[in-house]
């Protein structure tokens, strides 16, 4: 069953360099997970098995804490269907790539 989540990890600091450093570290963790993902300007979209995505999601605050003691807020949207697959990232966004 393919599921998808959108996730935003938002470090609670006004230091933009630190925000970027923490977010980049979190994105590297997502990349190493092997799931299909796409980074956007406000959030990243991930798709894969529901349980795998939930395991990744629960780890994200801990991953951020590995390199900083700055608190983070984690916002997510979850799309899961029990009897069919959800629309993929590509199906939702490819038609806008050349615009």
From TrEMBL:
Residues 6-96 form the Thiamine-binding protein domain. InterPro entries: MTH1187/YkoF-like, Thiamine_BP, UPF0045_domain. It comes from the Bacteria. It holds the Pfam family Thiamine_BP. One of its GO terms (cellular component) is cytosol. Belongs to the UPF0045 family. This is Thiamine-binding protein domain-containing protein.
